[in-house]
Amino acid sequence: MKIFLKKYLPYILTDAGQLSTGEKLRSGLAAFGGILLVAWISSYFVTGPGLPLMVGSMGASAALLFAASHSPLAQPWPLVGGNILSALVGVTVAKLTHDPVLGSALAVSLSVLLMLLTHSLHPPGGGLALIPLFGGPSVQSLGYEFVLLPTGLNVLVLLMAALLINNLLPSRRYPARP
User: Fold this and answer.
1) Quick check: 122 and 65 in contact, CB under 8 A?
2) How far apart are CA 117 and CA 75, in angstroms?
3) 147-153, Cβ contacts within 8 angstroms, sequence gap of 24 or more
4) Is residue 172 pLDDT above 90, yes or no?
5) Where does residue 143 fall: left (phi above 0), alpha (psi -120 to 50 degrees), or beta otherwise?
């Protein structure tokens, strides 16, 4: 935990702290627009308890993308890879186990392991891995389709918004490295 905090906390704290008030407002508006689109897209595929879970997970991604865009956790590969791999793990675990306690532990731990092995650590992915277990019938009926629709589409929308908005702000460049 110490290594994680030492490596990533400075990015999160300094990135948002260096923004002007105007940039902070634009970041908030960008998050609003991104999540509005994500909620709208998700509502076509997921209903009931799955919808707020889906939007919540994407909201955590939006916070990283628009408030800490220089963080290694907010870069395109962690955003895309972390969410897609975690969705795959979540669906697989949901199909293999019906025990929510064991399923939760398996889904999160396996998604974290897979993100670490693929250098795609994106903490909201850990939450996303739980949605197939707790999202209710509308999510469970999607099966592996959940990985592409709504997850993949939502990630694409957030990535496009991050590329557009973060590169319009004078003090930002996104991704942090080409």
Assistant:
1) no
2) 16
3) 147/84, 147/87, 147/88, 147/91, 149/45, 150/41, 150/42, 150/44, 150/45, 150/46, 150/54, 151/54, 151/83, 151/84, 151/87, 152/84, 152/87, 153/41
4) no
5) left
Tokens representing 62 are 């939006």
Rounded CA-CA distance 32/111 in Å is: 27
What is the rounded distance in angstroms from the CA atom of residue 136 to the CA atom of residue 140? 6
For 18-57, the pLDDT digits (tens) are: 778 888 898 899 999 999 999 999 999 999 999 999 999 9
Lookup: tokens for 143: 């099966």
- CA gap 61, 159 in Å, rounded: 10
Residues 125 and 137: their CA atoms lie apart, in Å, by 21
Residues 174 and 8: their CA atoms lie apart, in Å, by: 17
Q: Are 8 and 72 in contact (CB under 8 A)?
A: yes
The C-alpha atoms of residue 138 and residue 23 are separated, in whole angstroms, by 38
